[in-house]
């Protein structure tokens, strides 16, 4: 499952005709928060014309107008609260959190292509169960627990690194390079804890499968550009469908709607998920069935002036019920996961 700069756009209120100024909103590129400033009123029309997400005959299109030398945040945060209920009605609760902090610094733009440094800043993971919480945070010292040291070392080796990204003004990610030094750094870190060469190679191979150019290009292409290339009207809906499993039998559908554009913000609503599906198998008198369902809802906000994502807040509820029956009596195990999937969670 899948998921800012400093030019202002729309006037909230004219302060005074005599002063010829207007209060407008913009997004602070350092914090990602929306702020209000006062600018000359005659600059509003010019700014609107230069907006990244702008209206043409009622149709809004998304481009990027990033500034050379500016840095744009992209912090992702996910919180999962899982409740499992056994056949006797006993429940077990667990909470996990994951934060990945990164940012994008614009080095240059030539021929409508940005040269960007992707800064991998930090990673934090935590798990809480039965009143106990364990945390692995690259901003904190090495954990004392032996089973957490490996995770911390790998995450620490992954962060404090830089990749180079080429992206055009339409949001197409052309290339991401610089992975090999990161792989080497991780291999060295693993080598301090793992002496077996095969185990060490296995860890690095696993990393390469999840952290490579294709994976990151797909991720950024989905997160950074949501409005269709052809554009969308206010209230218009569109749909994207992706595989939820490797064989493509299960599809997750994301329904989008352009809710509003103005005051420096373009807001998109998100809904959909995976419809309830039940798989049933019988062997003799015994029947084994599994039903599952996923429902998502939320919003994504972009800076109208730069096209950069400022905030995402999507809730995802996954329900799975496993039942075994002999025709006379049955037992069920239920699992419910409530997740929050956010981008730049500190931005409002």
Give keywords.
17 strands, globular, 12-stranded antiparallel beta sheet, 348 residues, Lipoprotein, alpha+beta, disordered N terminus, DUF6263
Q: End-to-end distance, in Å?
A: 23 Å
Quote the beta fraction: over 45%
Total strands: 17
| Helix proportion | 10-25%
User: What structural category arises from helix and sheet content?
Assistant: alpha+beta
Low-confidence stretches: 1-19, 43-47
Number of helices: 5
H-E string: EEEHEEEEEEHEEHHHEEEEEE
Molecular shape: globular
- Gyration radius, rounded: 24 Å
Mean pLDDT: 86
**Biggest sheet details:** 12 strands, antiparallel
Plain-language structure description:
- The strands form three sheets. Strands 6, 7, 8, 9, 10, 11, 12, 13, 14, 15, 16 and 17 form a twelve-stranded antiparallel β-sheet that branches.
- The protein is 17% helix and 53% strand.
- Strand 12 and strand 13 form a beta hairpin.
- It is globular.
- The two termini are 23 Å apart.
- It has 348 residues and is α+β, with helices and mostly antiparallel strands.
Would you kindly provide a brief summary of this structure?
With 348 residues, this protein is α+β, with helices and mostly antiparallel strands.
What's the helix and strand layout?
Elements: E1 11-16, E2 21-27, E3 34-40, H1 44-49, E4 53-56, E5 59-62, E6 71-85, E7 91-110, E8 113-129, E9 132-137, H2 146-158, E10 161-168, E11 173-177, H3 179-191, H4 197-210, H5 213-224, E12 237-243, E13 251-262, E14 265-283, E15 286-303, E16 309-325, E17 330-343
Antiparallel strand pairs: 1-2, 2-3, 4-5, 6-7, 6-17, 7-8, 8-9, 8-10, 10-11, 12-13, 13-14, 14-15, 15-16, 16-17
């Amino acid at each position: 499952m899948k998921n800012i700069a400093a030019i202002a756009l729309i006037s909230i209120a004219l302060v005074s005709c005599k002063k010829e100024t207007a209060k407008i909103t913009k997004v602070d590129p350092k914090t990602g928060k929306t702020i209000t400033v006062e600018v000359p009123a005659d600059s509003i029309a010019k700014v609107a014309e230069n907006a990244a997400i702008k209206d043409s005959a009622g149709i809004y299109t998304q481009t990027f107008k990033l500034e050379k030398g500016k840095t744009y945040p992209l912090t992702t945060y996910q919180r999962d609260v899982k409740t499992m209920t056994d056949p006797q009605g006993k429940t077990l609760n667990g909470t996990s959190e994951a934060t990945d902090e990164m940012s994008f610094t614009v080095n240059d733009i030539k021929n409508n292509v940005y040269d960007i440094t992707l800064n991998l800043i930090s990673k934090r993971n935590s798990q809480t169960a039965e009143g106990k919480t364990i945390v692995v945070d690259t901003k904190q010292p090495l954990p004392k627990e032996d089973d957490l040291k490996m995770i911390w070392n790998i995450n620490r080796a992954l962060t404090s690194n830089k990749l180079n990204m080429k992206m055009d003004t339409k949001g197409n990610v052309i290339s991401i390079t610089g992975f090999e030094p990161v792989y080497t750094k991780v291999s060295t870190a693993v080598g301090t804890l793992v002496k077996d060469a095969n185990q060490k190679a296995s860890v690095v191979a696993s990393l390469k499968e999840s952290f490579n150019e294709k994976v990151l290009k797909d991720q950024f292409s989905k997160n950074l550009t949501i409005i269709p290339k052809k554009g969308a009207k206010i209230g218009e809906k569109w749909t994207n469908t992706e595989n939820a499993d490797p064989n493509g039998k299960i599809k997750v559908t994301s329904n989008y709607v352009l809710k509003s554009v103005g005051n420096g913000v373009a807001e998109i609503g998100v809904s959909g998920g995976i419809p309830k599906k039940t798989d049933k198998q019988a062997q003799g008198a015994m029947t084994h069935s599994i039903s599952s369902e996923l429902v998502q809802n939320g919003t994504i906000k972009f800076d109208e002036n730069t096209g950069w994502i400022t905030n995402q807040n999507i809730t995802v509820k996954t329900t799975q019920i496993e039942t075994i029956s002999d025709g006379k009596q049955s037992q069920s195990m239920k699992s419910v996961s409530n997740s929050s999937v956010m981008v730049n969670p500190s931005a409002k």
